Amino acid sequence: MGERLVLDPARIRELFDLRSQVYAHMGGSYEADPYPEFQRLRASGPVHEGTPGRLIGFTGEEFFQGLPFPERRHFSAFDFETCDHIVRHPETFSSSSLMPGETASLADSSMLTMDGDQHRRYRSLVQPSFVPGRARWWIEKWIEVTVEALIDGIEANGAADLNVEFCAAIPLLTICGSFGVTVEQALDIRAAVTSQGRGIQEFMGIVAPIVAARRERPEDDLISVLVQAELTEDGETHVLSDIDVLGFAFLLLAAGSGTTWKQMGITLTALLAQPEWLDRARQDPDVLRAAIEESTRWNATDPAFGRFVMHDTELAGVAVPSGSVVHPVFGAANRDPARWENPDVYDPGRPMRTHLAFGNGPHICLGMHVARAEMATAIGALLRRLPNLRTDPDAPPTKIIGMYERGPDTVPAVWG
Description:
The chain has a single domain (2-414), classed as CATH 1.10.630.10. Helix content is 46%, strand content 10%. The protein contains 16 helices and 14 strands. β5 (230-233) and β6 (236-239) form a beta hairpin.
């Protein structure tokens, strides 16, 4: 457990601070509240030509799934009905930008860029470790030990920036632990998967030998499950190649270690701002789960995605030609007043309805149950171990920042 505490705070901040160079190309320093503009666009549209950022006045670099592709026309959807339609119809709105004959790189050879039978088979091979019934496996083997060790490191201090000193490391160490990667290597891997492809070789150098070792001698970890996965269909047996396993590992680290920590920080920010809900969450795990789910609806970390239009179509009366990129703006869809009453209000007591924070359709987030388990375990442990947890009254107020990846700039808290 002690090894997990050997984390360089300066490097953690560099790798996870939304204002750092890691996030600059995704608009990490964007500080305005996008939701009033999302609301205006939804009310006047709900589909508009342009990228989500440009439509709300963001002028910085745009890089995210479906961006930049400057040679293509871009359209953005801001209501729940249209966004839900887009993600449920991959035959029209594809996840892959590859043209016929093009070969995917490791960064592109993931479920995010697959559709149809290829996506269905691949997902069937990797999904068994991510179903709700396997959450306890993740919690007992990796999540709890990481969470408790991190609290051990801050408990006596009486104060912390929970965003960097607690939330940031949990998903990274959980995922890397499930690969059999050491804590020391975990930060190198984080740097590799956030380098826009420049760190692929470093990632391969760390993870590829583990894949080879698990093929020879499986252990009780995720890589072993993946290399042993088989699917028999119409008399044909499908397995994951080394590049499949590495591509999935890359995706899991890029997505899982880049979103869950921010959503955990958003949830803590919301609860600390409403101490009555914090107290109720401390006393009742069901309230805590509701608080986490409401935070994903209210302020999702990834407010927009991209889909590539396969043939001429129409969305909400707007003609969208083949070859365009359509951006379902999940952040706006999750605050559609046609679906939620007072949607801008964070209210864990509201009736639960399906939202799009984890997407929907064939590409609904595979790791959402693990993400929920990480957040519930981590926040529950904070509430159990740190008495009178509250916002640091002497710290500047938290800002939720970022354009294409959003999260708190800091979560200052005191206790005792």
